[in-house]
Recover the amino acids of this structure.
């Protein structure tokens, strides 16, 4: 049985990130279209969340005053991000990644090695998930590791198919 609170947290974090980076309100359907796969009871692999699940998570975020709903076209509801105390931390992290684009070659190779380790961890987690991890933890971990590796790859400017990263992606 998947950890429902973890799946909800993953989905909520992703929805907030989508709304934070959008410069306009997004509808529930638009947010669902780009939402991550989440663990589902009885399924071997994570699946796209259903429309109602995305809506429920957005309503929860609205109760926490992290998002605000607005009327969109027809019966659709638009959602916008509300600034909060986490914005300062997010700005610091964004600045750290931006600074990493100007790193020296030695630092870039260190980041590339870190990327390799993340990719290896993602492969291991994926193998566990394929091997029958019905809890979905390995699937979620695999996706987190892949996302981190992609962030590091983007920060280093070294393509995932370069000789440094072993020429493969997870």
């Amino acid at each position: 049985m998947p950890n429902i609170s973890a799946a909800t947290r993953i989905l909520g974090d992703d929805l907030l990130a989508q709304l934070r980076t959008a410069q306009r309100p997004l509808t529930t359907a638009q947010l669902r279209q780009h939402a991550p796969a989440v663990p589902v009871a009885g399924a071997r692999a994570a699946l796209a969340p259903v429309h109602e699940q995305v809506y429920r998570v957005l309503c929860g975020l609205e109760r926490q005053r992290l998002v605000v709903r607005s009327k969109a076209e027809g019966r659709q509801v638009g959602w916008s991000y509300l600034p909060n105390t986490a914005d300062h931390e997010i700005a610091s992290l964004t600045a750290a990644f931006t600074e990493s684009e100007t790193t020296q070659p030695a630092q870039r190779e260190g980041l590339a090695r870190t990327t390799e380790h993340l990719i290896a961890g993602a492969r291991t987690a994926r193998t566990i998930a394929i091997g029958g991890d019905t809890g979905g933890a390995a699937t979620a971990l695999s996706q987190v590791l892949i996302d981190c590796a992609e962030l590091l790859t983007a920060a280093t400017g070294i393509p995932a198919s370069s000789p440094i990263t072993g020429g493969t992606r997870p």
User: Anything to note?
Assistant: Residues 162-170 have pLDDT under 50 and may be disordered. The two ends are 25 Å apart (CA to CA). The helical segments are 4-21, 28-33, 51-63, 86-100, 105-130, 137-156. The chain is about 60% helix and 5% strand.
